[in-house]
Amino acid sequence: MFSWRKTKLQAVSIHQCRLSSLFRGVLVDAIGVSGTQSQASSQHGLASKTVLPIARNHSVLLFKLRTSARFDVWSIDRAEAFSTISGSILLQARDPAKLNEEIQIAVDQHRCDEAWRLFEQHMQMEGFPRKSVVNNVLVCFAESLDSSWLQKGYTLVEQAFEESKQNLLEKEPLLYLSLALAKSGMAVPASTILRKLVETEEYPHVSAWSAVLAHMSLAGSGSYLSAELVLEIGYLFHNNRVDPRKKSNAPLLAMKPNTLALNIALAGCLLFGTTRKAEELLDMIPKIGVKADANLLVIMAHIYERNGRREELRKLQRHIDEACNLNDSQFWQFYNCLLMCHLKFGDLESASKMVLEMLRRGKVARNSLGAAILGFDTADDDRLNLRKGSEVEESDNKETRTFSTHSMIPYEEFFRDRKFLKLEAEAKDVLGALLAKLHVQVELITTERGVLQPTEEIYVKLAKAFLESGKMKELAEFLLKAEHEDSPVSSDESMLVNVINACISLGMLDQAHDLLDEMRMAGVRTGASVYSSLLKAYCKTNRTREVTSLLRDAQKAGIQFDSSCYEALIQSQVIQNDTHGALNVFKEMKEAKIPRGGNQQFEKLLKGCEGNAEAGLMSKLLREIREGQSLDAGVHDWNNVIHFFSKKGLMQDAEKALKRMRSLGHSPNAQTFHSMVTGYAAIGSKYTEVTELWGEMKSIAAATSSMRFDQELLDAVLYTFVRGGFFSRANEVVEMMEKGNMFVDKYKYRMLFLKYHKTAYKGKAPKVQSESQLRKREAGLIFKKWLGLS
Fold first, then answer.
1. Sorted alphabetically, which PROSITE patterns does this protein's record hold (predicted)?
2. Which of 229, 549, 644, 675 has its CA 20 to 30 A from that of 306?
């Protein structure tokens, strides 16, 4: 209840004198002052009752600005600007305690609009209501899962922190609001609330913030923020810096990231392609002492494969082979990653050996009822433990996921569950959904009766790699061995014939002829269709010498060409003005009594592939060669070298490796520069070197398509420039990221700016400054404005 003593009124009058003339004029109009001293004194009581709450709490305008869309009170006519305020002032002569009760009743009845209207009135009268009411309003908004109410709730939280009234906010309602925001796809405010809780040492339990993390990770920007959060929270626990023996550290230790939180963040990074950020999380694991489970082992394999860390995959293989709790899906995901990595590095020998070993084991399993668990022990090759998986998949993989983004657990249950077991179960469900999406991406390996088997995709990728490297003999040997180990088919339907047909259709006639020779020398007979299609292709391109050679090979193999081949030969001779040769071919055709009509098998096959009538091996190979990107294995090798030196802080060696990489003709890519930039950032004070790299990146990106700026690279560059105060360059990076619709974690950069440049660019500019100083100041102010700190 207000006190209306004379001293209070004098204080109000003094405060009024300090207000701007604009605001003073409006207040006088609102009170109804007539201009005479006697009328003013007669209405003195009404003036005190209406003006006092506003004078005592100057946060009313701030509240209205923050909760109204695009409300700029200073940009409109002053009479209009304060007419609403003057009207509302007359309504404020109410009992605040009564208003608190009314707000609570509206909250209990889940009438968010009424609660908000009353809350606004209280903010105009007294500022924030009492603590319990504020928190109940936040809970009411969170339970609604309505984006507009959630935004208003978050706005209240922001204002409370800005006015240093965070003591009004309790941890549980804030966590509940953060979860609701995450479920509604509002990852930035959800993560900001978690960060504020950590800053104020109201440490959230790991099971609670893991659930928030899980729902954030279902979207691209949210997954990136999830990784940042785990890195920030995990940093507090590096190298056992928190003593577990102290009871006072118990709340902090309860927040420590666990395997579930890491799995969620890593799976989100994998699904949305930020695998270098994921590798930062992997580097943190030994520093905070988190134990790996089966899911984490498989996720690590995916990350190493995406980033081309073949040696790390080989080290991981021992743990995979020894793990006893991996199911079939996890097991074949790992070997899919290993196989993909062999292909990335151009190690076709290791890849083909893996495929042949799978086929051998599969053949044994098919022929022997007792071969349920198979192992193999090779001395020099990659050890592939092909074993029978469990008969039944884990129950969480078989059952349908039950988590929902459209409903909230009631707050009473949330509050009573002190260990957040329900939220932990929900986080596990979301993780299961994320891992299921990863499982869908496995395309090179499948299982039959618990034994790993290659899919058609691996034959396509291997065939393409062999063809690109010119290893025709090795390709033929591999495919013939694969045919021998796999189920036998007719020669015209074999994988090798499919590859030859694909080569012919792509105009790779020399490669097709070489493969045909390898088949013939291996004693494998094939039908006339392959020879016919190759002969026609040679005739079409007027390659007389190759036609003669192929005719000789066909005669040795006992192949009889059809009339269409003879017609193609005759037409080729006529085009070359060799009438005598054309007559000889026609005479030979008549003597052989070849019927007209010919064999149209290849033409039908080719039309089927072009129309995608059936996604067979040939059509997949055609698509892979036409659309797939050629891999430069040397780039992966040098990237690993540079990454190793950068991780160890040996930047001079990394620079030498980069120079050598360029001299050998390998073009650095985003991964190369990311390793260099993060290496310099770890050392510190290497901002000039990063600036030089930035210039090189832009020139390479302008000249070639091999260099593509991605979110992770630009984020690493931006961090370094902001840390060093290079704001002109930082503005360039921000512009590029916004142009590419990339997510930027403004909160992180706001904290970084306040940490290292808090006092910079404050006050008036110096009267005397050089042009470079002026440009630097302008760039700093632009960046500061972008952060929302100006």
1. PPR
2. 229
Give the HSE-up count for residue 730: Cα atoms under 13 Å, Cβ half-sphere: 27
The CATH number of the domain covering residues in 96-321: 1.25.40.10
Q: What are phi and psi of 189, to 5 degrees?
A: -65, -35
What distance in Å separates the CA atoms of residue 770 and residue 138, rounded to the nearest whole number? 52
Mean pLDDT by 10 residues, the chain (790 residues): 36 39 37 37 37 41 44 36 41 73 92 93 90 95 94 95 93 96 95 96 95 94 95 93 90 95 96 94 93 92 93 90 81 90 90 89 70 42 42 39 72 91 94 89 78 84 86 88 71 75 85 86 80 83 82 79 74 69 64 53 45 53 62 84 93 94 90 94 89 92 84 95 94 94 94 91 77 89 90
Cβ-based neighbours of 270, under 8 Å, separated by 6 or more: 278, 299, 302, 303, 306, 438
Task: Round to whole Å and give the CA distance between 541 and 381.
Answer: 44
Instruction: Judge whether 485 and 363 are in contact, CB under 8 Å.
Output: yes
Reference 53, options 128, 104, 115; nearest CA is: 128
Per residue, the 3-state secondary structure of 237-294, as one string, reads CHHHCCCCCCHHHHHHHHCCCCHHHHHHHHHHHHHCCCHHHHHHHHHHHHHHCCCCCH
* Contact between 776 and 728 (Cβ < 8 Å): yes
767 contact partners, CB below 8 Å, separation of at least 6 = none
Domain regions of the chain by residue span: 96-321, 562-610, 613-787
Classify domain 613-787 by CATH architecture: Alpha Horseshoe (1.25)
Is-contact 172 392, C-beta < 8 A? no
Q: Map residue 185 onto helix, strand or coil.
A: coil
Question: Does this chain's domain 96-321 share its CATH topology with 613-787?
Answer: yes
CA separation for the pair 254, 675 (Å, rounded):
33
Tell me, what DSSP letter sits at residue 560?
Answer: -
Only one residue has tokens 């770890």, namely: 682
